[in-house]
């Protein structure tokens, strides 16, 4: 029986991808090459340092480890700048309503995000209070598709993997949920997220009733 929903953040609860894109693009331009929105698709759900490696590969640039740390920090400062100014209505359609419905129904809620800025974003959207557990990029060692982030979420809630449903917009995240032995709802392109147990376009399509599908 499903007792908890574990949410990815970027792409599921909020569309921060565009801000990541603007910050990475600025960095790429600084380094002397262009970075398109299509290139940015490859960074979704991927950790900050791995994202940088992909960006450098696209630009055909190589940097020392110290330089990498330096530019990743610069990118994050720009990104955080955008986040601080993000209006709170940038929460994705249906997200707040579904969180509210889950809480009313007594279904536990956890966050499973690769982002080290997750707390800041939840605060900004004023939804921190909905979460019974928050596992983010500051609490995990292994990135998705490793299931660590979701397993830690289930553990914090005192639940087993079979009692949890994960909501993910990235292929690596869907794979992480499956590797953790959890059910998974793909939010977004059903072709990219074909391994998910259920596919939806946004959380506006979701309800506590629909969770019964997994019982
Ligand atoms: P940060 P998620 C991921 O969040 C993003 O999708 C990905 O684009 C980003 O690089 C990663 O977080 C790390 O974010 O630089 O803020 O630590 O989708 O797992 O919620
Ligand atoms: Mg995501």
TrEMBL record:
Keywords: Carbohydrate metabolism, Isomerase, Magnesium, Metal-binding, Phosphoprotein
Active site: 8, 10
Family designation: Belongs to the HAD-like hydrolase superfamily. CbbY/CbbZ/Gph/YieH family.
Record keyword Phosphoprotein present: yes
Keyword check for Magnesium: yes
Superkingdom classification of source: Bacteria
Gene Ontology terms describing biological process: carbohydrate metabolic process
Residues involved in substrate binding: 8-10, 24, 43-48, 51, 75, 113-117, 144
Pfam families tied to this protein: Hydrolase
Enzyme class: isomerase
Binding site for Mg(2+): 8, 10, 168-169
Gene3D superfamilies, A to Z: HAD superfamily/HAD-like (3.40.50.1000), Putative phosphatase, domain 2 (1.10.150.240)
Lineage: Bacteria, Pseudomonadati, Bacteroidota, Cytophagia, Cytophagales
Chain positions of site Important for catalytic activity and assists the phosphoryl transfer reaction to Asp8 by balancing charge and orienting the reacting groups: 113, 144
Textual note on the cofactor: Binds 2 magnesium ions per subunit.
GO terms assigned for molecular function: beta-phosphoglucomutase activity; magnesium ion binding
Catalysed reactions listed for this entry: beta-D-glucose 1-phosphate = beta-D-glucose 6-phosphate
Required co-factors: Mg(2+)
Protein name (Swiss-Prot/TrEMBL): Beta-phosphoglucomutase
EC number: 5.4.2.6
